[in-house]
């Protein structure tokens, strides 16, 4: 369940990342474009992503002992934070990070379902 919610959050980040520049470019949407480009929106989107990675990936690893979900999730988080740091390439970093996070959570879910709990 955590991986589904986490994938949804990462998907929302991806959607925001891809749609926000178009909405801002339209300019006619005023307050919406102002909200979408605000720094607090980025922070508001990143907080649940980080929390869900911390809740989901380590517990999944303890269950299935596969490194892939963790590597994908860490790479995704680094890329998302890279988007916050390198504002000129924000869309590229954040989109790649969101996709890596989704892949990490989905592989975590797959490995958790495919392998019984390890004692």
Q: How is this structure best described in words?
A:
- This protein has one domain (2-114).
- It is 84% helix and 0% strand.
- The chain is built from five helices and no strands.
- α3 (39-64) packs antiparallel against α4 and α3 runs parallel beside α5 (90-114).
- It has helices spanning 2-26, 31-36, 39-64, 68-85, 90-114.
- The two termini are 21 Å apart.
- It is elongated.
- The chain has 119 residues and is an all-alpha fold.
How many separate domains make up the residues? 1
According to DSSP, the number of beta strands is 0
What is the tally of helical segments? 5
Mean pLDDT: 83
Q: Helices and strands, in N-to-C order?
A: HHHHH
Please state roughly what percent of the residues sit in beta strands, choosing from under 5%, 5-15%, 15-25%, 25-35%, 35-45% or over 45%. Answer: under 5%
Shape: elongated
Specify the helix fraction band.
over 70%
Query: What structural class is derived from the secondary structure elements?
Result: mainly alpha
Alpha-carbon distance between the termini? 21 Å
- Please tell me how large the radius of gyration is: 16 Å
* Unreliably modeled segments: none
Organism: Marinibactrum halimedae
Keywords: Membrane, Transmembrane, Transmembrane helix
InterPro entries: Mercury-R_MerC
GO molecular function: mercury ion transmembrane transporter activity
Topology overview:
Elements: H1 2-26, H2 31-36, H3 39-64, H4 68-85, H5 90-114
Helix pairs in contact: 1-3, 1-5, 3-4, 3-5, 4-5
Using brief descriptors, characterize the structure shown.
mainly alpha, transmembrane helix, MerC domain-containing protein, 119 residues
């Amino acid at each position: 369940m955590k991986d589904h919610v986490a994938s949804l959050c990462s998907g929302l980040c991806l959607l925001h990342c891809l749609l926000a520049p178009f909405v801002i470019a339209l300019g006619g949407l005023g307050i919406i474009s102002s909200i979408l480009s605000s720094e607090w929106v980025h922070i508001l989107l990143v907080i649940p992503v980080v929390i869900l990675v911390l809740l989901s990936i380590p517990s999944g690893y303890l269950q299935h002992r596969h490194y892939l979900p963790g590597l994908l999730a860490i790479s995704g988080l680094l890329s998302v934070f890279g988007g916050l740091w390198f504002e000129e390439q924000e869309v590229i970093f954040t989109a790649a990070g969101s996709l890596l996070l989704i892949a990490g959570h989905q592989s975590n879910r797959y490995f958790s379902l495919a392998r019984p709990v390890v004692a």
